[in-house]
UniProtKB/TrEMBL annotation:
Keywords: Hydrolase, Magnesium, Manganese, Metal-binding, Repeat, tRNA processing, Zinc. It comes from Populus tomentosa. It is an enzyme of class 3 (hydrolase). One of its GO terms (biological process) is tRNA 5'-leader removal. Its EC number is 3.1.26.5. It catalyses: Endonucleolytic cleavage of RNA, removing 5'-extranucleotides from tRNA precursor. Residues 1-20 are annotated as: Disordered. Belongs to the PPR family. P subfamily. GO terms for molecular function: metal ion binding; ribonuclease P activity. PANTHER family: PROTEINACEOUS RNASE P 2, PTHR13547. This is ribonuclease P. The keyword Amino-acid biosynthesis does not apply. InterPro entries: PROP1-like_PPR_dom, PRORP_C.
Amino acid sequence: MAMASSSNRKKPKKNQTPESQFNYNLNFYSKSKDLHSAISLYDTAISQDTRLNQHSFNTLLYLCSVSLNDPSTKELALRCGFRIFDHMVSNGIKPNEASITAVARLAAAKGDGDYAFDLVKNVGAYNELPRLRTYDPALFCFCEKLEADKAYEVEEHMGSMGVGFEEGEIAALLKVSVESRNEKRVYGYLQKLRKMVRCVRGQTAKVIEHWFAVFEGSGVELDVDLVREAVSRNGGGWHGLGWIGKGKWVLKRGSVDVGGKCCCCGEQLVSVDIDDDETEIFAESVAGLAMEREVKANFSEFQNWLEEHANYEAIVDGANIGLYQQNFAEGGFSISQLDAVVKDLYNQSGKKWPLIIMHNKRIRALLQNPSTRELIQEWIEKDVLYTTPQGSNDDWYWLYAAVKLRCLLVTNDEMRDHIFELLGSDFFIKWKERHQVRYTFVKGKLELQMPPLFSVVIQESENGSWHVPVAGNGNDSPQSWLCVSRPRACDALEEDSCMEGSKDSNDICCNSKLLSFGRPESLTSCKNKLQSQASFQGSDNKITALTCKRKERSPSPSYLHVPRDQRHQ
């Protein structure tokens, strides 16, 4: 059998079997990407009837697939790769997902997307599940050959198998849809990008630019209230109703200022929340997990109480704030820090009290302290405080309240504990960005760090304009923004102003001033669900001015968590 030689290689063990010697040499050739030597080794093994296992075949197939990028080895890889796979199957060696992926890459490199797709569709015959990488060869092959219908078939099959997309796959589908002038598909893939990608890559941005440069179709004319309701229901930043407006598109590359205003068209970008359905799913998930880990009756009582006290615009993680920077000898629970946060929120929100959530054990201790008793009793009387019962984890309570009421959550907790990992949802990160208020005390002075004034994601405005953040060096920080609008949106601005201030586009965090305090735009509890878009009855106000009237609050059961003899001095 052929042996690899290298001064840097370790000497093989003595008395190796032919199979062990083959695998030893093959692994070396694989690491060095030496396809010619690996094929020579394989041919020698076959002539000597050396038994090869699945790992050996997969190593050879992998080496063939990675050799496709080298013009000097591509022909050899294609010629030998299929022969090796046929030998593998004829010998009764079951291919796995890695085997199928490697051969699918070979087929795509030969331009045979149909064979690559057939391999994926038949992977179940080997009791294997396809992955994204398994579909990529067929999908990209069809897209490159502009075989749109076949590409859409791959997409549909991926969905049926629960395989998700990444930017590269969506961009490929977007491009083939642009080339085939499929307006509906292009719109759908733009929405997929909006949902899955924060900043698009430069190549993706070029595809988007090309579409709007050639797309001359007029959008539908929709009732303004219908569009606003859709934006509200979706959490802001998109309506999903299709192309809106008439006239050619105006494309510009520019920046967005720190307040979220596009310097090209003057459009105000928004802070995007999760939509109504995601909010309900999120709240139900938190409640379900809490019920499994808490005393069910206790958490149910909290849920019922919250239904009767649903007017809060901010939830406060009392323990997190009271124990902030208290890890020193004289440190303890700082009621003054908590009071500062509560008063700041009260003053900035138009005299609306936040809800503090803390464990009853800590509240009992504070009530027993004469210096803190009066403040705690004041909070109890004003329904500012809810105490969680003995043995409970207050994390479940403040998280559920913030999600259910769609309001702000004041905490420095990064929510990385196992209880939050159980949620396992992509929209958890999106929700945190929109709702979490962090804080700091600099020399005793409170600074609230509010959520960003606007979200760095693709945004579709009420008037049909689009704003697409294009990635710079970092994936989440835009180097520029692609502004796509109708002519009337750009008339008021000077051409040169579009390119000014790009250095400010990355600074998206608002200062400690609460410029837009309160409940996010998605207000399911304030309105009736639409039976359908056609039967929609619109709001009378702009989306940013929507408010809801709440019923009068009943006495707080948090009072009941405090011992009777400690309620008053």
